[in-house]
Amino acid sequence: MRVKLYDLAHCRAGDKGNTLILSLIPFRETDYPLLSQMVTAEKVKEHLSSIVKGDVVRYELPNIASLQFVCQDALEGGVTTSLALDPHGKTLSYALLEMEIELQKGI
Amino acid sequence: MVRIGAGAGFSGDRLEPAAILVEKGQLDYLVLECLAERTIALAQKQKWKNPSRGYDPLLEKRMELLLPLIVKHRVRLITNMGAANPVAAAERIAAMAREKGLKIKVAAVIGDDVMEKIDKQMLAIESGKPIDSYGTILSANAYLGADALLPALQSGADVIVTGRVADPSLFLAPMIYHYGWPLDDTERLAKGAIVGHLLECAGQITGGYFADPGKKDVPGMARLGFPFADVMPDGTAVISKVDGTGGIICPMTVKEQLLYEVTDPTAYITPDVVVDLTTVQLREIGPDRVEITGGSGKTKPDMLKVSIGYHGGFVGEGEISYAGPNALRRAQLAGEIVYERLKDCFVNLKVDYIGLSSAHRSFLGQGGEPYEVRLRVAGKADTKEQAELIGEEVESLYTNGPAGGGGARKYVHEVIGIISTLIPRQMVNVQITIRE
Fold first, then answer.
1. Between chains, do B415 and A81 touch, taking CB under 8 Å as contact?
2. Which residue has the higher pLDDT, B362 or A19?
3. Of B14, B121, B216, B361, which has fewest CB within 10 angstroms of its CB?
4. Is the pLDDT of residue B114 over 90?
5. What local confidence, expressed as pLDDT, does residue B365 receive?
């Protein structure tokens, strides 16, 4: 069964220069191992390939059951000079939550 | 225990939550964080025109509301609303207090402006290129740390007004002052900086920028309460808000804010301490009450970050809407027409379809055609006149473009670009000026 990350987790987007920062926080802390397993840096880079031009690094925060994705070269130059409608990339939290993962039976 | 409230999280933030915090929050300190990266460069331009200006445009409005309340409730106010001119801001605040018959002492913290000290050949962190290769430099401000505010706190000032200070440091300073934490106590400084980071965006931890109806519901958002923290001598804290205000504080809101804008959770750099957020622990201890424990740190960096504002030309934009049958194709035809007419005049012309693919720069969803689409064209130019061409071309679609275009709007704004560089701490000379 395929589910959207939106069904399992929430996210806030932040920016620093041309870097996009996306948290991924499961509604249920017990889903943290599943998200850690399924939502790798590579998968996020692939899903956001039209947005993120540079590397994606994933940080794990098991204490608060959260993941952080730091995406380089993702904001068309950054908030101050970008021509994008949303130069901060603030709406991109929901671009990550649009990603789908495959759930195995029994989960 | 020391109680510190966050009464503004950005320059344009709501006014009354700070007043509610002062009246009903039993605060020791109120912090107003109002200074975005670009704001200081814009303020610097104002200061050139008028030496008594260059502070935050909402300073008078906020002080009008807050000065009588902070005197009545004995709350000390800390704010970076000084922007490019903290001394002028302090003078204005002192004058306002005199007009109201209030006796207060205002301290301006200066020294963040390092325009005269930087070498234009210094390299930008972002690109490795010299900073003056970007355009005319308008401002250069070092991110001061909490230590810069300590003399002002020791002076007994009721209001402390600064220019550029790292946001968490505005909150950390009163903790250091209140408890006498040594400046090399990385453990407690880290915990305090974490609390500062959690508070710096004000409503973003009380349910603002969080709500998603049916998924993450937040009560009373029209009267969102702003947060305060009760900080203990060991740096642990409880984040809460005034009873009866709107919003919600729960582990979910705290997690979103903890990770907000952090590029490396293992090493979140502030001028005071380098913080490891991965050791933070959260516990919901009551309704709208979350306890923050853990958090650790390493010694502060030798260099201070300097934010540099430069003139980056002008952006012109034009928008027009199409709705009903075949709206998308008509909007696309309109985009093609404008592109053909302007492509030789602009290096980079951005054509967006609002309602389809503009915010995420691509179409990630599923589903059919949108009922209405808004064409947006944007481009950058060296002059204002050139930038205006874009809006003019979009507007001319009224009589020259596809059928049914409406609601055309045109905009031009000056681009203030921001880059950063690093300078040694010793080059920054912090002083305070008192006004009464």
1. yes
2. A19
3. B121
4. yes
5. 77
Across the interface, whether the CB atoms of A59 and B266 are under 8 A apart is answered yes
CATH code assigned at A50: 3.30.70
The nearest alpha carbon in chain B to A70 belongs to: B263
Helices (H), A23-92: 32-38, 41-47
Distance between CA B415 and CA B419 in Å, rounded?
Answer: 13
Tell me, yes or no, whether A22 lies in a domain.
Answer: yes
User: How many domains does chain A contain in total?
Assistant: 1
On whether residue A80 sits in a domain, the answer given is yes
**How many residues are there in chain A?**
107
Using an 8 Å CB-CB cutoff, list chain B residues near A74.
Answer: none
Position B84 confidence tier, pLDDT thresholds 50, 70, 90? very high
pLDDT higher than 70, residue A106: no
Judge whether B347 is closer than 8 Å to chain A, CB to CB. Answer: no
Which has more pLDDT, A104 or B54?
B54
pLDDT at A105: 65
Token digits of residue B245: 């205000």
**What residues of chain A lie within 8 A of the CB of B260, using their CB?**
12, 14, 21, 23
Per DSSP, B129 falls in state S
Any A CB within 8 A of B128 CB: no
Q: How far out from the chain centre does Cα A56 lie?
A: 9
Residue B313: strand pairing partners: none
Evaluate whether residue A56 is within a structural domain: yes
The set of residues, in sequence order, having a beta carbon less than 8 Å from that of B44 and lying 6+ positions away, is B54, B84, B138, B139, B309
User: What range defines the domain where residue A60 resides?
Assistant: 2-102
By three-state DSSP, how is residue B362 classified?
A: coil
All structural domains of chain B: 2-118+137-307+426-435 (no CATH), 309-419 (3.30.70.1150)
**Domain assignment present for A107:** no
Could you report the per-residue pLDDT of A48-99, keeping only the tens digit for each?
Answer: 999 999 999 999 999 999 999 999 999 987 777 889 999 999 999 999 999 9
Nearest CA in chain A to B276: A61
Residues of A in contact with B261 (CB under 8 A): 14-16, 21
Residues with Cβ within 8 Å of residue B93, at least 6 apart in sequence: B59, B63, B67, B104, B106, B159, B161, B435
